[in-house]
Structure formats: structure tokens, C-alpha cells
Amino acid sequence: MKFLLFFTNKKGFTLLEVLLAVALLGVITITVMGFFSQTFHFAKQNENRTVAVNVARSVLNYAESQDFESMNNLLSANGTIGKNGEKTIQITADNCQMLGLSGVNCQKRIDSKINDVIYIGTITIASRQPTNNRTDASLYKYLLDAKVEIKWNKQDITVKGVIKNE
């Protein structure tokens, strides 16, 4: 009964009531701030992933803009036989000039630094193998498969496309 009288003081708040209110407000504030911190972290991850997708598309566009004949000759001369019998070659910023890719400074096109994040690209070019599909069998020698893989901060993303003989 004495306890209930303690909280029925009509003159104002007691020190204990103020301390309880401040403690409760502190717990609520810490919980809400933790939520915002986690939301910021996820937003930053999504921003980096969006940038990586755009970088991958840009690198794929660069690969697709290369001359088909020169890419086919490069694949024939330097390619290795893959597990499905296709010839493949990997192009990185380190070997792109040695392989003779056209364009201004191919290293900067394949690897890039955006918002203090380094995105490292690898282009894989593969010969297209004929399948049982009659349409594909007649076109396979005019197409090269291109796959771009971008790595950043222990994450990666892959975009695929085709280099065509026009």
C-alpha cells in the first residue's frame, strides 16, 4: 500500500519516476537507432550492387563493340578448350592491351573505381557450340558468347551477352 502512495504524489514527479522515464526513453532510442543503422547498411550494399550492375553492363557493351573477326581470331589463337568443347578466353585489365583490344585504355574500361569502391572485371569470351536446334546450328559461327563478371568487396555479379558478326 505504501508503494502505491509513492506514485500518487500530486506535487510533481519524484526522482525515481524521472529516472524510470529517462531509462525507458533511452532503451526505445537505442532500439530505433539500431534499426536506422541497419537500414543504412543495407542501402549502401544495394547502392554498390546497382553500381556493379551498371559497370558490368558498360564492360559488356565494350566487349560487344569489339570487331567480331578480331575477337574470333583472338579466341582461335589464344583460347583454351572448355568443358563443353567450346574455346574460351578470359580478358582482364592486366591482359587486355597485350591481347590487342581496341578502345581507349581498356584497363580503365574493365576495372573501375566508383565512390571509393574498386570494381574488378573479367570478360570471358566463348565460341558458341552447335546444338540440335537447326536455327542455332546455322548461326553459331557468327556469334560469340560474352560473360562479364564484376567483383567488389567479396561480392560479385555476372552479366551475359553476345558478340555478333554484322
Quick summary:
This protein has 166 residues and is an alpha+beta fold.
Description:
It is a single chain. The chain has about 170 residues and is an alpha+beta fold. The chain has helices spanning about 1-5, 15-65, 70-80, 105-110, 135-140; strands spanning about 80, 85-90, 110-115, 115-125, 145-150, 155-165. Strands 1, 2, 3, 4, 5 and 6 form a six-stranded antiparallel beta sheet that branches. Strand 1 and strand 2 form a beta hairpin. The longest helix is centred in the N-terminal third of the chain and has 50 residues, at about 15-65. It is rod-shaped. The mean pLDDT is about 85.
The count of DSSP E runs of length 2 or more, i.e. the number of strands, is 6
Return residue spans where pLDDT drops below 50 for at least 5 consecutive residues.
none
- State the end-to-end distance: 93 Å
Mean pLDDT: 84
- Tell me about the biggest sheet? 6 strands, antiparallel
The helix fraction, in percent, is 40-55%
Topology:
Layout: H1 2-6, H2 15-64, H3 68-78, E1 80-81, E2 87-92, H4 106-110, E3 112-114, E4 117-127, H5 134-139, E5 143-152, E6 155-164
